[in-house]
Structure formats: C-alpha cells, structure tokens
Amino acid sequence: NAGVTQTPKFRVLKTGQSMTLLCAQDMNHEYMYWYRQDPGMGLRLIHYSVGEGTTAKGEVPDGYNVSRLKKQNFLLGLESAAPSQTSVYFCASSPGLAGEQFFGPGTRLTVL
Amino acid sequence: RKEVEQDPGPFNVPEGATVAFNCTYSNSASQSFFWYRQDCRKEPKLLMSVYSSGNEDGRFTAQLNRASQYISLLIRDSKLSDSATYLCVVNIYGGSQGNLIFGKGTKLSVKP
Predict the structure, then answer these.
(1) Which residue of B has its CA nearest to A97?
(2) Residue B28's Cα: distance from chain center in Å?
(3) Largest CA distance in chain B
(4) Which residues of chain B have pLDDT under 70?
(5) pLDDT one-digit tens code per residue, B72-87
(6) Could you tell me the pLDDT band of residue A42, with boundaries at 50, 70 and 90?
(7) Considering only CB atoms, which residues of chain A are within 8 Å of chain B?
(8) Backbone angles phi, psi at B81, to 5 degrees
(9) Do residues B108 and B13 lie in contact, with contact meaning Cβ atoms separated by under 8 Å?
(10) Across the strands, what pairs with B107?
(11) Chain A residues with beta carbon closer than 8 angstroms to that of B45
(12) Taking residues A54-63, what's their average pLDDT?
C-alpha cells in the first residue's frame, strides 16, 4: 500500500516549456487535490476533483490544467511554464470532504 | 482578515518545555478542525483532529473555542523530534477553495 505517490520528484523547466505532474493513490479515495506551497504563503489549492471525470478550480488555478480520467490518478499540467510557477507541488487525496487528507511526497519544480 | 491565521514563530524551546500554538479562523461556518505537522522538505501529515470538547493524544492537547473562533495546540515535555512546522487547518464545506484551508504554519525548534 503505497498511499499517494507523485512523479517526478524534481524537475527543472525553461520558461515556456510544458510538463505534466502525475499523482496516483491506491486508497480508493474519491477526492483528490493539487496544492502548491511557497515560502511564506502556506499551502494553496490549485485544482481539485470530487470523483472520476470531474475537476474544479481552487484558489490559484491560472496557468494550470488538470484531468481525472481514472479514479486513482490526478494529473496536473503546465502548458507554458513561467518562473512564478517555481514551487513545491503536493497532491493529496481523501475519502470524503470532512476528514483527513493524505499527501504525496511532493514535486519540487524550478522554472528558469 | 485572513481565513486562518497563525503566529509564524519560530518558537525555540528547550527539551522538556511546554509550548502552545494558537490559531484563529474567520469563517464561522467552519465545520471541522485539524492540526497537521510538516517536517522540513516533507509532506504535511495529520497530527490530530480538534473536537469541540477538546482532545488529548499523549503529550498533545488540542482545544477549540467556537465562540472566539480560536484553536490551540499544547505540547508538553517537548522532544527533539517535535521540531517541525505545525499547520492549523480548517474545513469549510462547500467553499470555493475546496474544503481545507491551511494556515501558514508555526515553526517549532526544540533544542537539547
């Protein structure tokens, strides 16, 4: 039981490049989330999903897209990376809206 | 007023000390409350939920005051391993930001 896994762990991009971050969970959770964490800003929600095939915008969705084609996977895409997107990205999942969220180990992204 | 506010610290305390963290939240519709712990360069993990009646888990005690919109975490007999950042988290059902709102965290450093 791996819990929540994220791929890749580290990545360096040049401005304008695109990439996809993959999140996978093996806990059969309905809800999945993408956050970014910046120094002094705390965790901010980018997008989330309440079930397979559904997505919704969070607090800071601009510049990102997501897809949830399978229940266990939640993909975060950056179509044209910008230096402002340099951050640590965390994926999380939860069985419901009321309780604990389980986080992946994070992806450290640097955009030059 | 920010939705969830915490003293950023850092709190530097000797081993064996008792330390208290406070957190205030602005949305009176908040439904549930948590303390998460985040070690340096790691993902957040649930430390404990916070119940209206207050709850204790070993050396950790959490309390909630709904009237004052205030949450606290008390750590007794601090250990070196308690060094981490403690995140106050509030669950707001149906919020546009998803459901969990994270504070920016309070950093604790326990010294020998």
Answers:
(1) B99
(2) 18
(3) 45
(4) 1-2, 93-98
(5) 999 999 999 999 999 9
(6) confident
(7) 33, 40-43, 45, 48, 56-59, 90, 97-101, 103-106
(8) -70, -10
(9) yes
(10) B85
(11) 103
(12) 93
